[in-house]
Amino acid sequence: MGMDEINKKREIAIKINGVKKKYKLGQIGGGTLQADIQSWWARLRGKEDPNSIIGQEQRLVGQSFMALNGIDMTVYKGEALGIIGGNGAGKSTLLKLLSRVTAPTEGEIDIYGRIASMLEVGTGFNGEMTGRENVYMNGAILGMTKAEIDEKMEQIIDFSEVREFIDTPVKRYSSGMYVKLAFSVAAHLDSEIMIMDEVLAVGDMKFQQKCLNKMRDAAKKEGRTVLYVSHNMNTIRQLCDRCVVLDKGKVKFEGNVEEAIKIYMGLDNSEDLSSYYNLRKVDRQFEFGKQVFITDFRFVGKEKAVYEVGEDIQFELCIDSKCDIKGAQIILPVKDADYAKIGMALSEPFDLEVGNGQIFKFKADMGLLAQDTYCLDIAIIKSDTEGNYYTYDNPGVKMLMEFSNEYAHGIEWNKKYWGNVMLPEIKRVQ
Questions:
Q1: Is the CB of residue 61 less than 8 Å from the CB of residue 52?
Q2: Cα–Cα nearest to 95, from 194, 213, 238
Q3: Tens digits of per-residue pLDDT, 278-293?
Q4: Which residue, 203, 264, 288, 316, is most buried by CB atoms nearer than 10 A?
């Protein structure tokens, strides 16, 4: 039985058809009727707005953009759906539409069940009311009686870990306390659909894991639907059954979580595992006055940057320099598939001379890395006597490499949880 046939038998929680959301750029108004008329008359004649701020980009005023541009999506009861994408992709806009915070410009959204949403810290909380009073208020909004809320109150307080402050006005809560109580309310009150937007961005690791477990139980054991937006791909992996990738207001991909993450991270094309990078045409930040340029980067001896676990990587740099530098170093940050830095390698010092097309070869021990795809960054630096670093060049290009070994015994924490460590020194190869 195919996935389409399985989905036909599943109960629909949310149905989205052709949804668009348009926002207008520029000022809403001039503050007075007279100012609004002046601005309107000026635009009508093609003149400068007399009420605009000096230096304001006039062509943006009155323009619009599509935050969502034709979204079609079906969310099923009891599934945990991840929604990922870059900044401005439309994730938060979609969740606001589903939470009825705003309405779509075009299209239809059918929702089958009550929604508990947490779009930001303290969503729906009244700062003057106590934590307990806010629990009652949120429950009432969902249509629950006082008796039903009373039945859940102790569970909410216990989970939130703010019992000592539950009768304190929430305006005195820290951001972490806000998150704990807000999540606890959303998770425990009777709702068929939970909508969470970066809810775990604040709070300690222990509580974050507790929240993930609760959302997983809500979907798997209680049959509730969870929509979860996050930039943390590990939490997406732990929680979600299916994933949607948004890009520029449209659905770029919908399906398997790992495939979605690869597409989001730009790792979906094997051609990206290139062994050669031409860096001559890269726009450097603050390029004016620069003295040193990395013009080429090459993984030596590889058609594609694919290695066995434990294999050293060898790479070659071509450098143009307008000055002599004694004791320059290569710094090589290593990032995981979430583009989070997990380690860094520093080369032994070497000397640069004035001239173009200087070739340098290096060997790096990456034996600590487990089987996975990694992103490399590279820069030329020099440290002073006090240990401060000056960067001569950083092209800012994401270079990919893969460690692949069917029989690898790489430790899991090497890949996901080990943090940012100093890798062995990069050696110069003559």
A1: yes
A2: 194
A3: 888 776 655 556 789 9
A4: 264
